[in-house]
Amino acid sequence: MTALSDHDAMQDHRAASSGPSHDEFLGLVQQRLDGVLERHCRELTDVAADLEPVTRAVRDLAKGGKRLRASFCFWGWLGAGGHDVDAAVDGATALELFHLAALVHDDLMDHSATRRGAVTAHEHFSRMHAAERLDGDAAEFGTGAALLIGDLCLAWSDELLASTRLGPSSWAAVRRVYDLMRSQVMAGQYLDMLEQARPGTRRDASRVVLTFKSAKYTVEHPLLLGGALAGASADVSAAYTGFGIPVGEAFQLRDDVLGVFGDPLRTGKPVGDDLREGKKTLLVLSGLDRADAAQRALLEQGLGDRRLTDHQVGVLQRILVDTGALDDVEQQITDLTHQGVDAIRGGAVPDGVATGLADLALTIAGRTA
Fold first, then answer.
1. Where are the domains of the chain?
2. Residues contacting 359, CB < 8 A, separation 6+
3. How far is residue 363 from each of residues 2, 99, 133, 247, measured CA to CA in Å?
4. CA–CA distance from 326 to each of 252, 297, 317 (Å)?
5. Cβ(299)–Cβ(321) under 8 Å?
6. Under CATH, domain 17-63+85-165 is a member of which superfamily?
7. pLDDT tens digit sequence for 336-361
8. Cα(69)–Cα(289) distance, rounded to whole angstroms?
9. For the segment 25-41, what is each residue's pLDDT rounded down to a tens digit?
10. Pseudo-torsion of CA 210, 215, 217, 221, nearest 10°?
């Protein structure tokens, strides 16, 4: 994760605690993730050699990613005075396994063909079915395989978290955060599906989806989980929430911008993919609100059309720029990021941790991929 460097302000804190740096911690998480997958994949291939494509798909999926949730778990743990590195690594790795499950299932529900520049799980197994001339419907086979792969990652995530050695009070706090995170992100996912299916637009409903499907799941809950692993006080947890929700919303708004304007070579997805999928993001809703009759007709006609050419995508992009929708969302990203940074700098966490979180917030809010 080269974009997220250690921070000078953290070095003194690290010297005092003799704990791992941010980058060292992510290295430990990767080692733990590799070890967990090695063991579980061996269990699968012991059942039958035909499960080898499943194990390969899981390992391939686990190779990429920014490890954002592990990063926020680290800062949450460090800011609460954490000492047990093994417990923090287990918690962060459990988050990454849960995220693998979420990615597989989300790609399936969105009918996405690519993820990080490679084919998605359901698409891979659909193609395998066709290449091997198997009986039945290739798409249904791919759907079934992706569901099972996601479920495996969910089970492995829970198993790893359950094996973490903690005292009773810490374990109860960790479990509360983790269970609430799982319930809320799935609730957000359902509400997202519902909003995409409903006619018309509802900005308030889209904001709820943004908060629960992404903001809390990406930033707030990983911070709170890290804090719970270290026995965080109520004041520290409140600082994490004050930072996590606005920064998580800024992260998702940036993701929405990248889904329309992002470079495919950097995002790993076709240009304008969110437009073809018909996602009613706050960026799109802002464009619809601000558009004149002709612009609105073009947006409504193009949104959700999977046959949109790159030229047609360019026309819709131009509307989002000309109406001021893009500027509106960019301003929201800036305001939310500053709100979160102010909250953590004024919160009950060490200065080095506040600096690390502030730098991470600025990185993900302005990221190019």
1. 17-63+85-165, 167-369
2. 4, 7
3. 11, 20, 46, 11
4. 14, 18, 9
5. no
6. Farnesyl Diphosphate Synthase (1.10.600.10)
7. 999 999 999 999 999 999 999 999 99
8. 33
9. 999 999 999 999 999 99
10. -140
